[in-house]
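Table S2 (text version). Query chain:
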Amino acid sequence: MRLTVDCALSAESGLQDAMQLGNLAYLLAKAKVTPVAMPLEALTCEQYGLRATPDYPIAAIAAAADGLKASAGYWLRADPVNLVLQRDCFSLGEPIPLQLEQEHAARLVTSLNEHFSQDGLTFLIGKSGAWYLHSHTDTQITTTLPSVAASKNVHQFMPQGEQAAKWLAVLNETQMLLHEHAVNVAREASRELAVNSIWLSGSGAIPEPAMI
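Corresponding structure-token output:
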């Protein structure tokens, strides 16, 4: 559960006093606390007037902030992840995303781009090291943020919507491509988690400036 806190401080006990105290309990004592049933990223979009159409355009906004030219097309976060086989399902393992050496990340993304370029899909790596997927056409899906799906059965958190079948196929092809990839062989030899899938989230185009 995530919380947003709206605080009303009197003139006698203003923000400066609260900052000096540096005590969250002080703020909570003077706040109206309301539980919000949505991830923090989605809540931030709502607070800035951005609506899910059908998804929140978190990836496009993040890509622009991460040094990529996100003004055109549609974007998704494409976090490298490790799916863990449970008794009768796969769960999304942590950490998310997996931490990769720059060389390993570049080699994996190069392989993905060689495979998917004919489909109008391009994988990119931002300055932060985060992975993104750019599409020339509207993604037309809703996704689940990895923070929501972590350690759970991934089946119920797969992309939904008009183009869900297309993106499920992309995920399946990605998993086949990553299986026994040389980078994963090296990672497993070093007792590191293999990158056996990607996690798609935050699909959409960059919002118009007036919308932000």
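Notes on Table S2: DSSP finds eight helices and eight strands in the chain. Confidence is low (pLDDT under 50) at residues 7-12.
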